[in-house]
Specification:
single chain, about 300 residues, mainly alpha, Glutaredoxin, Glutathione S-transferase Yfyf (Class Pi), Chain A, domain 2, 2 domains, 4-stranded mixed beta sheet, 14 helices, globular, disordered N terminus
C-alpha cells in the first residue's frame, strides 16, 4: 500500500504513531459491507465493526424487495444472503466469520478475549447462534411480522414465491411459505419460539455471576446475542424478559443498548416505516406468543 503524499507527508516524517494510524485508516477505507437494516446477521457485523472502531463503505441490499437475488449480488454471494464484507478486494462471507476476520485483521479494540478458555466459551455462543438461534429468529420474524405484511400485499401463488427465491433453496422457501400461510400453526413454528425462550433462560442463568456472557468483559458473545434479543424488542416481544420475568437479561440488554455503537449498528439502518410495521405486527401477535409461553409466564409470576 502506498501512503498519501502532500498533506500527510510532513506529519508522517519521524512520527511512527501517525504513520500507523494513517495506515489503519486507509485500510479501513477499503472495507465494504453489503447489508440490510432488518438483517440480524448484518446488524451483528455492524455492531462488531463499531466496537472495533472500524469505518466501512456500505452497499444496501434490500432483501425485502428481493435485491439479494440479482445476478450482481449472487456473483458476490451465491447463497443470496447478507452480510458480505469486501476487504481490499477479498470477499468474506458469513457473519461470524466476518467478525473473526475483522478481529484478526485489525487487532486494536479486540472483541475476542485473550484467554483461550474464554475464546472457546465465546465460540460456544456464536456456534449456538448460527446453528439454532438464527433459524429460530427467522421463524419468529416471519410468524410475528413478515406474514402479515406479505398477506396484506398479496402473497401470490406458491410457485411465484418459490421462483422468486430460487437461490435460497426450495426447502427454505417452502418453510417460509408455511410460516406465511399458517403462522404459529406451521410445522415447527411453536418449537422455534420455545427454543428462543430457552436461550433467554440460558442467558439469565449465565448472567447470575457476571455482567457479560463470557468473563467480566463485553465480548463477541454479547455481540452475537444482541441482534437476536433486539429483534424481539423490535417485534414488541420484550415481554419475554421484561417486568421481572428475566431480570438479568433485561439488565444485560440495557447495558448493550448503552454501548456507543448500538444505535449506529441497529437503529439507524432500519427504515422508520419498517420499524413501525414490525412493532405493530408484533403487538398484534404478542397475545398468541404469550399464550404459547403461558406455562413459562406462570412459573415466573408474570401476568
Amino acid at each position: 500500500m502506498q501512503l498519501a503524499g502532500g498533506l500527510y507527508a510532513d506529519q508522517l516524517r519521524g512520527d511512527h504513531g501517525a504513520r500507523a494510524r494513517l495506515l489503519c485508516r486507509l485500510e479501513q477505507e477499503m472495507l465494504e459491507l453489503y447489508h440490510h437494516g432488518s438483517s440480524a446477521c448484518a446488524a451483528k457485523v455492524r455492531f462488531a465493526l463499531a466496537e472495533k472502531h472500524l469505518g466501512w463503505t456500505g452497499h444496501y441490499v434490500d432483501i425485502l424487495a428481493g435485491e439479494q437475488f440479482r445476478p450482481e449480488f449472487l456473483a458476490i454471494n451465491p447463497k443470496a444472503v447478507v452480510p458480505v464484507l469486501v476487504h481490499d478486494g477479498e470477499i468474506i462471507r458469513e457473519s461470524t466469520v466476518i467478525c473473526e476476520y475483522a478481529d484478526e485483521a485489525f487487532p486494536a479494540h479486540p472483541i475476542y478475549p485473550s484467554s483461550p478458555v474464554e475464546r472457546a466459551q465465546v465460540r460456544i455462543w456464536t456456534k449456538a447462534v448460527d446453528e439454532e438461534l438464527h433459524p429460530a429468529c427467522s421463524a419468529i420474524t416471519y410468524v410475528v411480522s413478515h406474514r402479515h405484511t406479505i398477506l396484506r400485499s398479496g402473497a401470490g401463488t406458491f410457485e411465484d414465491f418459490l421462483s422468486k427465491g430460487a437461490a435460497e433453496g426450495a426447502a427454505a422457501r417452502t418453510l417460509k411459505w408455511q410460516y406465511i400461510e399458517q403462522g404459529l400453526a406451521a410445522p415447527g413454528a411453536a418449537e422455534k419460539i420455545h427454543l428462543y425462550d430457552a436461550y433467554l433462560h440460558r442467558m439469565e442463568q449465565t448472567l447470575t455471576t457476571r455482567r457479560w456472557l463470557v468473563g467480566q468483559d463485553f465480548s463477541m458473545a454479547d455481540i452475537a446475542m444482541a441482534p437476536y434479543v433486539n429483534r424481539l424488542a423490535a417485534l414488541a416481544m420484550d415481554g419475554m424478559w421484561a417486568n421481572g420475568r428475566l431480570p438479568r437479561v433485561e439488565a444485560w440488554f440495557e447495558r448493550v443498548r448503552d454501548r456507543p455503537g448500538f444505535h449506529s449498528a441497529f437503529i439507524e439502518w432500519i427504515p422508520e416505516p419498517l420499524a413501525e410495521e414490525m412493532h405493530a405486527n408484533g403487538v398484534r401477535s404478542w397475545p398468541e406468543i404469550r399464550s404459547l409461553l403461558g406455562g413459562s409466564f406462570e412459573k415466573t409470576g408474570r401476568r
